[in-house]
Specification:
By secondary structure, this protein is an alpha/beta fold. It has a single domain, classed as Acetylglutamate kinase-like (Carbamate kinase), CATH 3.40.1160.10. It is built from 7 helices and 15 strands. An 8-stranded mixed β-sheet has the order 4-7-2-1-10-14-15-13, sandwiched between helices. It has a 3-stranded antiparallel β-sheet with strand order 3-9-8. The chain has a two-stranded antiparallel ribbon with strand order 5-6. The longest helix has 27 residues. Bound molecules: adenosine-5'-triphosphate and Isopentenyl phosphate. The site of Isopentenyl phosphate (IP8) has 17 residues, from helix 3, helix 4, strand 8 and helix 6. The site of Isopentenyl phosphate has 17 residues, from helix 3, helix 4, strand 8 and helix 6.
């Protein structure tokens, strides 16, 4: 395609969300190789998975600042930096030039200042950002990777935005909880979709809200299964398996 893309690597794909800090190296390598084949320049955002959500939930983050939460937020931030470093090494192995931005250092007036991202992409880097904890007033908050994708999209107006999760796309309801759930190939708004969110940032519920908003800034927004990374090649083409936001 040779355009500019923003790709969210969901924590449900690159980590095992049920085991603290378990990284899926081989899966991430497969995804990186398939992203490389697109020829696109891109920014990559990683979600929390088991590096972000387990400790956050255990210590009640987001929440008011307490000594316990300060310790936990520091640990979550370090864990996310570690996850970003691991993903960065995988991307380098696929000949990207990743450049990690620490999200909490880029928050200005309640949102991520994405001004440098476009410049780094144009110079040949692949900016890599991650969902993160940050301080706001008397609270410790979480800045979701999904929200970062919205901020970058607003700034860059990318040709394509793709969210990789561990299911085929958006379903009528959670496919892991109800086997009658059906995939919805085209979504215009979030009406008629039951989305549950059990992680620290609201899971699929927040994602749906973000997807609809991101569509204003990009012609092609989709959700696909990162466990089948060969599907990346079919984004925007006939035969694509996943959900397109219309
Ligand atoms: P992270 O936030 O760690 O980056 P992620 O972005 O990969 O994770 P989740 O927030 O875990 O993804 O959302 C994906 C999960 O949402 C799926 O594993 C699925 O079980 C669940 N889910 C709930 N409702 C739906 C729905 N209507 N359609 C599709 N998946 C849903
Ligand atoms: O998984 C949350 O980002 P998300 C990151 O994209 C943390 O919602 C630190 C839990």
């Amino acid at each position: 395609m040779d355009g500019i893309s923003v790709v969210k690597l969901g924590g449900s794909v690159i980590t095992d969300k049920s085991v603290y800090r378990r990284f899926r190296l081989r899966k991430t390598q497969d995804i990186a190789a398939n992203l490389r084949k697109t020829g696109d320049r891109m920014a990559i955002v990683i979600g929390g998975g088991s590096f972000g959500h387990i400790l956050s939930k255990r210590h009640g983050i987001p929440g008011a600042i307490t000594p316990d939460r300060i310790e936990a937020a520091s640990a979550v931030h370090s864990d996310m930096l570690d996850l970003a470093a691991r993903v960065g090494r995988v991307l380098s192995g696929s000949h990207f030039k990743p450049y990690i931005f620490s999200t909490s250092s880029m928050i200005r007036n309640g949102r991520v200042d994405c001004t440098p991202i476009g410049e780094y992409i144009r110079k040949g880097f692949t900016p890599l950002l991650f969902g993160d904890t940050y301080i706001s007033g008397g609270r410790i908050e979480i800045y979701s990777g999904d929200r970062i994708v919205l901020d970058i999209s607003q700034n860059l107006k990318p040709d394509m935005v793709a969210f990789l999760t561990d299911v085929d796309g958006i379903y009528t309801e959670d496919p892991k909880k109800n086997h009658d759930a059906r995939i919805v190939y085209e979504v215009g708004n979030d009406e008629g979709i039951k989305a549950t969110g059990e992680d620290a940032t609201g899971g699929m519920r927040l994602k749906l809200d973000m997807l609809v908003r991101i569509r204003k800034y990009s012609r092609h927004v989709c959700v696909l299964n990162g466990n089948h990374p060969e599907r990346i090649a079919l984004i925007g083409k006939p035969g694509f398996i996943g959900t397109v936001i219309s």
